[in-house]
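Run log, item B.
One chain of 280 residues. Sequence copied directly from the ordering sheet:
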Amino acid sequence: MPVWEFKDFADITYNARRITPKHNRSVSISVDDTNLYINDNAFPATAGATGQIMQCGGTGMSWVDLPFGGETGIQGTTGAFGGPPGSTGLRGPTGLDGAYAAMGVTGAQGLQGVTGLQGITGLRGLTGLRGTLGPVGSQGVTGIQGSSGLQGVTGMRGTASYTGMINIIVDAGGALLTPGIKGQIVIPVTSQVYKYNIFGSTGGYARFDISRTNYSTYPGATLMHYNETGAVLNGTVKNRDTDITNWANRSMSAEDIVIFNLVSVTGMHRLSLNIGYSII
């Protein structure tokens, strides 16, 4: 917009009410006590709003708003009780953390990796059909309990795991043997006889009677076998009996005395008798 100076106007007199530019006589500006006149047209017709300015354009003068706000006026005096509190201003950005003096600057923490997707659970197989249960049969009637049978006779005791031998040796030193008591043995444990072996120096005849007693009744004694069925050697050099359960009394108590009596012998110089027993 051109700026006019007083030198651009003609015939300007002191206290003049009308001015005309030198270079354009068809334009004039004049004033009176009420209006401003552009080419004798009163303007503006009405007062502008507060803060507007008057602008001259191709269509004449008009009131327009400033493209920016006007300056803030001087703050008035605070009232007796003060004005209402102003709005809280926007919060400024947070400042950077200062470095730790003792520990040094902390490095930036790395980003956590993304968790992988969980695999899809496989489909569950179909459950087979359950068979139908058959009807449960009725429980049978419990029979009457029979009477307990009589206890059987206790069998004979078998041969014990520990066995022993009683050995009697009769030797005439080259002469012929004669009858008589040839030995007396004290039994250490309770036992019973179960076999015998008899051996001669030559073939002939010999018989031992075997009897038993205890210390209080000695020398009286009782045969352990029946008469003339003791240990016998008859015309041979050896004889044995592995089952003498037919003897009258095979048992022997601890501390019993067993007596060996050679009741008959012919044509022999030496005899050996072995009695086997088992502990009971």
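Observations after the first pass:
- The mean pLDDT is 75.
- Residues 6-65 form one domain.
Flagged for discussion on Thursday.
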